[in-house]
Structures are given as structure tokens and as C-alpha cells.
């Protein structure tokens, strides 16, 4: 399902720097929720065309158009990779901010990487090996539900019970089931 997506450039006329310029801001809206970030470009408030979201300077307009194109490309990439996009995810992708994962499989992969590094330090790979099978079972279960990944806010108690039954159908022992659920 494609979500609603909009990009808007604007300036804050009340925050003018000493040199007479103000920052051009970008508001990204996805499904009615928005996130704002500075584009890194500045203009004189007199040169700003509010109706079109442009400046009188062609060079700055080209830079803003390139940014808009990058935002749209990032939106499509996030939608393809994660299966969902939020305004905050898109902002973080554009501003190159490292974020905490918002989906279960992505968080699991990051945790596995931490376990891999830890296993080398302590010279024991048992937790790392077990996390591989847990992640694999979780991936299979999500595929059986027709999903590639699931957002944390979409995880319900029913999801947990369904996953537990799925693990039991795979003849997993009680200890491994508890580890997978944890």
C-alpha cells in the first residue's frame, strides 16, 4: 500500500541571521505526520517565492530540485526495503542520521551483529549461532503471514501467540521457543 507523501520547502521569516539570510526548511509529510529539517541552503527573505517554494536564484532552485529528487528516491528505497515509510525515517535517511530500527527483523539483524562482535571477544559463538536460527524462524513466520518485516507498533499479543504456535509446529524445544520469543 502506497502512503500519502508530500514535500514542502519554506522559510522562517522570524529567524533571520545577522547577514540578512534565513534557512530554507523542508517539511516532509507521510500519512499526515510530518518531520522538518534544514536543507542547508539560505536565501534572503525578499527573494523567496512562497507560492512556488522557490528562490529568485536559479542555482539554489536547482539544488532544491536535486534535494527533492533525492527525497523521492529515498522514499521509494525505504518503501521497497522496509515495506513502510514514516516521515521521521525519511528525514533520518536524508540527513544521514543513524536511527534505532523501527522494524523487528532490522533490530534483530543489528542485535546479531552485536552478538557476533561479542562472540569474538569472549571466544564463544553459542549465542550468536542460536540468534541465527531465531532470526531465521522469525523471517519464515513473517513470510508465512505475507510480510517482509513488521513495525514494532504493529506487534500485538496475537502476533506473539501465533509465533509461539509456529515455533511449536517446527518441533522447537521449550527453551528455544522462550529464547526466540525473548
What this model shows, in words?
- A hairpin with a 4-residue loop joins strand 4 and strand 5.
- The protein is 51% helix and 17% strand.
- The protein folds into two domains: 91 residues, no CATH class; 78 residues, no CATH class.
- The strands form two sheets. A three-stranded antiparallel β-sheet has the order 1-2-3, covered by helices on one side.
- The protein contains six helices and five strands; from the N terminus they run E-E-E-E-E-H-H-H-H-H-H.
- The relative contact order is 0.09.
Q: How far is it from the N-terminal to the C-terminal residue, by CA?
A: 30 Å
CA radius of gyration: 23 Å
Unreliable stretches covering 5 or more consecutive residues: none
Based on secondary structure, the structural category is: alpha+beta
Looking at how many chains there are and whether they match, the oligomeric state comes to single chain
Question: How many strands in all?
Answer: 5
Number of helices: 6
Strand content: 15-25%
Largest sheet strand order: 1-2-3
